[in-house]
Write a structure and sequence with these properties.
The complex is a heterodimer of chains A (590) and B (255). Chain A has nine helices and 38 strands. With 590 residues, chain A is mostly beta strands. In chain A, strands 6, 7, 8, 9, 10, 11, 12 and 13 form an eight-stranded antiparallel beta sheet that branches. Chain A is globular. The chains are: A mainly beta (590), B mainly alpha (255).
Chain lengths: 590, 255
């Protein structure tokens, strides 16, 4: 634990001893109570009108019954203020052939209106395409977030026209290719001022709707290399993209489920973590010259687990961004998650066991966010694969595994799941960060312990009150919108960054706020986390601190901007390089 | 007939002579292997110990020390190949199957979660062969405990109970050995895993009377609920190395 963290703990312990209540000590109180007034989240899904359920794609091919057990995917969410009215909107995918995707416009009063049809972004599914993810990113740097709908099939790039409507520009952008894509993130890997596109694919680019071979399943449970891997598209700054995967040195054909970018060593260049199912996750260091080097072995070692999620956050406030990766941990498979503590030298140490974040069942999205604004990043984690009948699928799969010389790549060797369950009905976990060294599960207390088959988590402040809310997707089920109703007291501060030399949405920008002699690092991420994209705004929980000692922004362009202390409990919009005097709180238009 | 008898006599004499010679050679190899192991010369240690086991394939001690060398050198696959070959050559050696099974167990903590299942399954196959050939204490105890590692969904804990109850009978019919405490611990755990808490407690109680210094029994008897659950489940974590050193067997017999 960093010395500063220890000092803070000692200080807080002393305060508690002296009988003084602090924000941290209040929140660290026993979490067993399930009384409603102890809850800091309220399920407002139906009240907000944002409850359309997800439907898993059912395939119509000779392997359909087998694929059913391995494709319960596609419930994804992405957040952005697409119409620039000051309130974050929500795009949610569905996956069945006739199902529509949803663009929920935030009405500003914690209600939403589905405007997908009107906006022209509803048609994400069909016989040859299934929506599996979504990403907002401003590919043409016009200040309007555009929408990339990730699909098994041909993904779609919708240009935001700024009048509430979108136009499909996939072909013109050079992105019209078949992928079994499940994840996309955008960040400016070469810091040329435009965000580039990184696509993670699960299956190799075989047409999964009509496979021409039965050999398209993972060849191994622990080191499969016949997946879709990662494809990198460089933004040409003219509305088009070029596939530069080989040139940049990203070589992986794993079964990619998530991508996470951040600057691991604070050198101004964003690095990349690739979470792969059925085998080795990958860590690529950005060389700062438009290429990456695979540093998996020295950074994290070669694992054999089932990587599902890669979110970055500085959980111990030591000034380096750490990584949370979910794997599978159940009675029959004891992989454990990774909480990769960043050692600051491009190596990481897994501290999941020590911190209590090791075991979350069959993990999916896991997101860092500070739900109680105490200055420590907490974690919310999805889990559960298939919650169906009472019969368990595990013996079936183990019977296959233990067959001598079984060809796992051949889908015909995999047993159909039927109505059986596999790691089903698992309770979600809300890990409260207890001072940067241990986490405690508070999900039940706050009513966040659903047993649905959770997938993605979007963290955003939907009512601009400084308390971070949650939108959660569930496979084959309704989503959840959880409104954060944390009692007032803990202070906060937020930033909306706009690049001028850097990419417009400032993806990759780092913000350091110092208060109470503690410096907090947060950054703008371009869509990290399984099946979900959180806000690109940057929020700081400040606990009892009412005064800011310093603010520094490191822009992707390399500019370091020092901002004079600002008043707490406000959002601020900062333009890259703007004069830093007289910065006023930002307000939504409505 | 006489001629035949004479032939048998000479054959037996020759076999005995050869066996003694082989055993001596094995012992020499074993000593050299242990010496090499002590100086962390794994390559030499494995070579000598393989020669020792090959020459005296039923020797539990040689095979156990060989596996320890394989664990230290992390050369699990070499050990598996060696035991596979040797057990094919001597399919009726229960001790060889037992050690072959342990060689699979030795690799489990170093393997991925799915390979762990395959290894555990292979180990169980070998342990079962050992039990079929000789249902002695170590074979029954080993297979019984191995059943307890399996996830609940496979419902193998009752089979563990059955084997461990048989092992308990075997040990009660013979002179008491220090290692017999393990059966009390494991059988109690097996009862606990099959929701027979009263029987588990009774078994541990019975064990503590005979082995009053057993910290593991004391711990179990002093705990309840989640604490007891955590203690027992910590013993069956596939990511932790299981102690497969069989030295208790000969250490006890040397007393």
């Amino acid at each position: 634990m960093p010395r500063r963290s220890r000092n803070v703990l000692l200080f807080l312990s002393l305060l508690t001893f002296l009988g003084m209540q602090t924000g941290l000590s209040q929140k660290a109180s026993p979490s067993s109570s399930s009384q409603a007034n102890d809850r800091w989240f309220e399920d407002v899904t139906h009240k907000a009108g944002i409850h359309m359920r997800h439907h898993t794609r059912r395939f119509d091919n000779p392997y359909a019954e087998i694929m059913q057990g391995y494709t319960k995917l596609g419930a994804a969410v992405a957040v952005a203020d697409y119409d620039r009215d000051g309130f974050e909107d929500v795009f949610v995918t569905d996956s069945c052939a006739t199902c529509k995707n949803h663009l929920y416009h935030n009405n500003g009063d914690f209600t939403f209106t589905d405007v997908a049809e009107k906006a022209g972004v509803a048609d994400g599914n069909g016989a040859e395409n299934a929506s599996s993810g979504a990403l907002w990113f401003d590919f043409n740097n016009d200040g309007l977030p555009d929408l990339f709908v990730v699909r098994f099939g041909h993904s779609i790039l919708y240009q935001n026209l700024g009048n509430g409507k979108f136009r499909d520009v996939t072909k013109a952008a050079g992105l019209d290719r078949y992928f079994n894509a499940i994840k996309a993130i955008a960040f400016d890997y070469d810091n040329d001022g435009y965000p580039d596109l990184f696509i993670g694919s699960y299956f190799q680019p075989i047409n999964v709707f009509h496979p021409n071979t039965p050999r398209f399943f993972p060849e191994s449970f622990e080191d499969a290399n016949n997946g879709g891997g990662v494809t990198v598209f460089h933004n040409n700054k003219d509305g088009t993209f070029t596939d530069v995967t080989e040139q940049v040195g990203i070589h992986t054909t794993g079964w990619t489920l998530d991508l996470g970018h951040a600057d691991a060593n604070n050198d101004g260049w964003d690095d990349l973590y690739v979470a792969n199912d059925f085998g080795t996750d990958r860590f690529y260091v950005n060389n700062g010259n438009g290429t990456f080097t695979d540093k998996t072995e020295s950074a994290i070692g070669f694992d054999t687990k089932k990587g599902m999620n890669a979110d970055w956050g500085d959980f111990d406030n030591d000034g380096f961004l750490d990584i949370y990766v979910t794997n599978i941990t159940d009675d029959y498979m004891r992989e454990g998650n990774f909480l990769w503590h960043n050692n600051g030298n491009l190596t990481f140490t897994d501290v999941a066991r020590e911190t209590g974040t090791y075991e979350t069942g069959w993990g999916w999205a896991g997101k860092f966010f500070d739900y109680d604004n105490d200055g420590w990043l907490d974690l919310y984690v999805m889990n559960g694969w298939v919650s169906a009948g009472k019969e368990n699928y595990v013996p079936d799969i183990f019977a296959m595994i233990t067959k001598p010389n079984v060809d796992l790549a051949d889908a015909r060797n995999w047993p159909p799941i039927g109505n059986k369950s596999l790691s089903g009905y698992e309770k979600k976990r809300l890990f409260h960060n207890e001072g940067g060294h241990i986490f405690k599960d508070d999900a039940a207390r706050h009513g966040l312990d659903s047993t649905k088959d959770g997938r993605g988590i979007a963290v955003a402040d939907f009512d601009n009150d400084g308390r971070l809310d949650l939108f959660v997707t569930n496979a084959d089920d309704e989503p959840f919108l959880y409104r954060n109703i944390l009692p007032t007291g803990a202070h906060w501060m937020g930033f909306i960054l706009e690049g001028t030399k850097s990419n417009r949405f400032a993806i990759g920008a780092q913000v350091r706020v110092t208060a109470n002699h503690q410096t907090y690092l947060r950054y703008v991420n371009g869509g990290n986390g399984f099946a979900s994209q959180s806000t690109t705004r940057v929020y700081f929980g400040l606990g009892k601190a009412t005064k800011i000692e310093g603010i520094e922004i490191r822009w992707p362009s390399g500019l370091k901007q020092t901002i004079p202390p600002l008043a707490v409990d406000h959002l601020y919009k900062i333009l890259e390089g703007q004069p830093v005097t007289n910065i006023q709180p930002w307000e939504a238009k409505r | 007939m006489i001629k035949n008898n004479r032939f048998h006599f000479f054959t037996l004499l020759l076999s005995a002579f050869l066996f003694c010679g082989l055993a001596r050679a094995s012992d020499n190899d074993f000593q050299l292997g242990i010496k090499a192991l002590e100086s962390n010369d794994f390559s030499t240690a494995l070579r000598y110990l393989e020669a020792a086991v090959t020459g005296d394939f039923d020797n539990v001690r040689y095979a156990s020390e060989y596996r320890k060398a394989a664990i230290k050198s992390k050369d699990f696959d070499r050990s598996l190949k060696f035991f596979e070959k040797l057990s094919n050559e001597h399919p009726n050696s229960a001790n060889l199957h037992l050690n072959f099974g342990f060689a699979y167990v030795d690799k489990i903590p170093a393997a991925g979660s799915i390979t762990q299942v395959i290894l555990a399954n292979n180990a169980l196959t070998q342990f079962s062969k050992a039990v079929e050939l000789n249902a002695n204490w170590i074979n029954l105890y080993t297979r019984g405990v191995s059943y307890l590692f399996w996830p609940k969904v496979f419902d193998r804990a009752p089979m563990g109970v059955a084997d461990l109850e048989r092992a308990m009978k075997v040990q009660k019919n013979g002179p008491r050995q220090d290692y017999h405490v393990k059966t009390y611990i494991a059988l109690g755990d097996a009862y606990w895993k099959t929701d027979q808490l009263a029987k588990a407690q009774a078994t541990w109680q019975e064990g503590i009377k005979l082995f009053p210094k057993s910290a593991e029994l004391k711990t179990r008897l002093s705990q309840k609920g989640d604490d007891l659950k955590n203690t027992i489940e910590a013993n069956f974590d596939p990511n932790k190395r299981v102690d497969t050193d069989l030295r208790d067997l000969w250490a006890s017999s040397q007393k």
